[in-house]
Write a structure and sequence with these properties.
single chain; alpha/beta; six-stranded mixed β-sheet; 11 strands
């Protein structure tokens, strides 16, 4: 909810009856909360069209009409057009400037004098009384009660300075709770745990109770490599799932629900808790079934468990980092797949350190799998003494007496130093552990840095020319009073002389909007209409401060004051696509939004009252316990229901 709400093409793919239901709900919302609603629509029927108070018609980025809905037909009649009886008002408006079908709505006596180009329509409109009325209103000032910022109490000033209304701990708690509800559903838990238990059972039976012999020493190295490989590959499967919620994160982050750091920290903690339980079961099964090093009162087992958990956490962080850095899901899966395979190959088992080519040595020292494998090797082999059976003695010559043959292995430390060239002068048991956790910390810092730069669309700086600078002692919104009211405050929204140019080639620009002016007042609906490519979405993006490149000229004001960083706090934007978390219910989605968008001083009762009112206003009461789901799922919300929830 907001004082100013933008709805972009919400009728796309919907039938006339559904569109009418949505427009009726929007009409009720605007009247109930006395808000400005500004939306672009397609295929609008007469009944839905009459619900709006004002309409703006665009073509090729130029305004050819802006005024009252009930005056549209009279205006176009005055310039030579007549609406056929069987054609809706919306279709009639879109036909007048279309060069291919405009003759069908042109009066016979006006075929030569009626406007034919967009420039003709724009000139006639600017010479009309409707345009003069708009300029007169803008000159008089369409504004509400803008209160000087200095008159607000200190608590209100604190709210204005905050990027998000909730504190970092509150954001983290809410996000962790949501993350665990999403990732700990029965199917996901059974799949994750079942997969690891099955792998542990197969590996345990394959390497059942290894002996302290020469063959057992060689087999142990393969077992430890296989354990590292299992958790390294697991990181690849989580990338697609992370990308599924990435658009939700970007949308809610730009709406100031929360910061990037508590979101990713909550995801990391959630994954760590799940991995801690999975690794405990996995390591216990492997250790007991294979018969690994149980000396020193279980210290070796404890290190084995924590090293596997550390490797799983490191690969989880790497997958999350790739998800943040790489812009597409397919690209991220490819990158993390290549990294995982490279790290496994250069882990020290398939290619020992002495055999690694000089030009690939950097992969070896970057590989978290290598550090985990090395730490596990030292942990397992330190303190073990191996013997050889008669068949394992060298030389393997039956004519050489057994007493003259020798065993190629002795202590475990000597075995791994000789075979894998691991330096003997380093305490790799602790060094590997510390290195991996340092890598985890660096990856998390990188995640936060890149996540703050992420945008729902690629962003570059926008140049605002001709716009007046906002004075520091004025604010464009009316703040909640001390009674903690959560009602929507009035906002008078105006735009004057809006032009928008984007670069197309080096040194060349293209104008998408040309001198657009208009206004909207509380409790009124304004329909934005035009053929495909007319500039409807472009104008809405400019007015909502969502354009990310090009040059914007003109003035956009709320309550007589220019837009500032607070505009996103009092405005809402419903885009053409519906972005939701599929596993939450309708009520949970609304409650989550209310929890993070309302100030902390709003009581639980007030927040619940607003949620209940929203459910009734949008006619979602009967659907409040339904899972949102994905559009292609049979039990998901329909397109119309998803649009209402958006």
């Amino acid at each position: 909810m907001g004082s100013v709400v933008f709805l972009d093409n919400i009728s796309k793919g919907l039938d006339a009856a559904t569109t009418l239901d949505i427009c009726t709900g929007i009409h009720k919302y605007a009247k109930e909360f006395n808000s400005v609603v500004f939306c672009s629509l397609q295929q609008l029927g007469n009944d839905a069209f009459r619900l709006f108070d004002k309409v703006m018609l665009l073509d090729s980025g130029k305004c050819i009409y802006f005024g009252a809905v009930d005056e549209v037909e009279g205006y176009f009649n005055s310039i030579g057009f007549e609406r056929p009886r069987m054609r809706s008002m919306a279709d009639f408006m879109l036909s007048v400037s279309d060069p291919f079908i405009s003759k069908s709505v042109t009066k016979a006596e006006c075929l030569g004098s009626a406007p034919k180009t967009v420039e003709d329509f724009e000139k006639l409109y600017q010479d009309s009384s409707h345009y003069c009325d708009v300029l007169e209103k803008l000159q008089e000032g369409v504004c509400g009660d803008a209160i000087p910022r200095s008159e607000h109490p200190k608590t209100s000033k604190k709210i204005l300075k905050k990027e998000c209304l909730q504190t970092y701990p509150s954001q983290f708690c809410y996000l962790l709770r949501r993350s665990m509800r999403l990732s700990w559903d029965r199917r996901t838990v059974m799949t994750d745990f079942g997969t690891k238990i099955l792998i542990a059972f197969l590996v345990g039976t394959l390497f059942w109770q290894l002996q302290l012999t020469s063959a057992g020493a060689y087999t142990r190295t393969g077992l430890l490599f296989m354990v590292c490989t299992v958790f390294a590959i697991s990181a690849v499967s989580g990338v697609a799932k992370k990308y599924k919620y990435n658009c939700v994160f970007l949308k809610q982050r730009e709406s100031r629900f929360y910061h990037a750091s508590p979101f990713h920290l909550a995801g990391v903690i959630d994954a760590f808790i799940k991995n801690a339980i999975i690794c405990l079961v996995f390591s216990t099964m492997i250790y007991l079934m294979v018969g690994l090093n149980l000396s020193d009162a279980g210290i070796h087992y404890g290190y084995f468990y924590f090293m596997i958990l550390t490797l799983a956490t490191a690969m989880e962080m790497m997958a999350r980092f790739v998800t943040v850095v790489v812009p597409t899901s397919d690209g991220a899966i490819m990158v993390i797949g290549v990294l995982a395979v490279s790290f496994i190959i250069y882990s020290g088992y398939l290619i020992p350190l002495a055999s690694v080519p000089d030009w690939f040595i950097w992969i070896y020292w970057m590989s978290p799998v290598q550090f985990a494998y090395r730490g596990l090797m030292y942990n397992e082999f330190t303190g073990l003494e191996f013997t050889c059976s008669e068949d394992e003695l060298v030389p393997a010559n039956p004519y050489v007496p057994v007493s003259d043959r020798t065993c190629t292995v002795g202590s475990g430390s000597d075995y791994i130093n000789d075979r894998y060239s691991f330096p003997a002068d380093q305490d790799w048991i602790s060094y590997s552990f510390i290195t991996l956790w340092g890598t985890i910390l660096l990856l998390f810092v990188g995640i936060i840095i890149f996540a703050r730069r992420q945008r729902l669309r690629g962003k570059t700086l926008v140049s605002h020319k001709g716009a007046k600078r906002i004075e520091d002692d004025m604010t464009s919104v009316e703040l909640p009073d001390d009674t903690s009211s959560v009602g929507i405050k009035h906002a008078y929204f105006t735009w004057k002389g809006i032009s928008y140019d984007v670069p197309i080639k080096r040194g060349e620009t293209k104008q998408l909007l040309d001198n657009i002016s208009g206004y909207a007042v509380p409790g009124k609906l304004c329909a934005l209409m035009g053929a495909s490519g007319a500039g409807k979405t472009t104008l809405m993006d400019v007015l909502a401060q969502r354009k990310n490149k090009g040059t914007i000229q003109g003035d956009i004001k709320v309550n007589g004051q220019g837009q500032d960083e607070l505009f996103c706090r009092l405005s809402g934007y419903v885009e053409q696509m519906d972005i939701h978390i599929s596993k939450t219910t309708v009520r949970e989605a609304i409650e989550f939004s209310a929890t993070l968008r309302l100030p902390q001083d709003v009581t639980e009762e007030e927040r619940s009252e607003l949620v209940e009112k929203t459910l009734d206003l949008l006619e979602l009461r009967e659907l409040q316990s339904n899972i949102i789901g994905m559009p292609e799922q049979a039990q998901a919300l329909s397109d119309e229901q998803r649009k209402r929830l958006t």
